[in-house]
Amino acid sequence: MTELINIFIIVPVYNHGDTLRRIVTEILNHHAHVIVVDDGSNDRGIEKISDLPVHVKVHERNKGKGAALKTGAETALELGGTHMVTIDADGQHDPGDLPKFISAVKNSPMAVHVGYRNFETSNVPGISRFGRSFSNFWLRVQTGRKVLDSQSGFRAYPLEIFKRLKFTEKRYSFEVEILVRSAWAGLDLCDVPISVYYPPKEERVSHFRALVDNARISWLNTRLTLRSMLPWPHQKMIGNADISIARPLKSLKILLQQEETAKGLAGSVFIGVFFGTLPLVGLHTLIILLTAGFLSQNRIVAVASSQMCMPPFVPAVCIEVGHYMRHGCFLTEISMQTLGYEALERVWEWIIGSFVVAPVLASIAAAATYCAAWIIRKQLSLSCP
User: Which of 83-87, 162-166, 197-201 is predicted least confidently?
Assistant: First the structure.
């Protein structure tokens, strides 16, 4: 990543001839480097800015907003850009908010900055409010990260993303995919408060096709959620290293070098051992991955920790505790009678006992992890010159 920050403003356009010139003119009042990508428009709106000092790229046919943003990114890279700020051409976004993004990029160049639209204004469609909440929820599930407005198209990206990561989406769903993959790659997702303008319904121009585009986004969310459950690392741009469950101490050292905290690792272990102890037959890994992701904990550490709870030892302890809670004594007879004919009794005792053993065992494992991580962290700090 070059130290010099060179920002380009990218304006994707599809039949926004009525507002395009005004938007581009206002952008030029704040920033000189502008790229307009006409995504196959048929309203000849691009001709209205032919006299303005901007770079223009034209798709002969409509390929989708994601494809337009990719073209804008490729053009910015060719022109020596390091970052791009995307702003819609329909007049919803205020170019007057551009200085906020430029400042945010300079303060945190290796982050994705997302505009947080102020919905305390008139004419905001109810579907937009619902869509934002819905999208925010799935982003949290898939990445463990929170942003306030994951559907906003007013954003800033480091262009290194487009050189290092691969994307499959070409239309509106691209803006969902790039947030998720950027978070997986280790980049921060930051909120930038912005204003928003929604014209009256009869004046509104939108090319979002509710059925088709929502279907695409739903299918993408399904794929991303399933990928987020797989316990192997994502492609990284920041903090990449070879983490192996088979080498726990070495991996712990690597994780600490990657800015993982002792508290965070202990939290991951707690999740893994807690849910690993519960009798969630066939569902352990799924629930651990979803919980760890939602709470921004390390999935690999959580899943690896759950392996300590595999049968027979931990279930046997749960059964003994459950038996004691029911009868005031431990189960000492191992026979066909106690394990065969009374199998349902043992299952019930396993369930009861697990709610006692799970938090205790998880707390012990988390405390041990915290202590080990603290010691390793201290050794690492002492070894630094």
Answer: 197-201
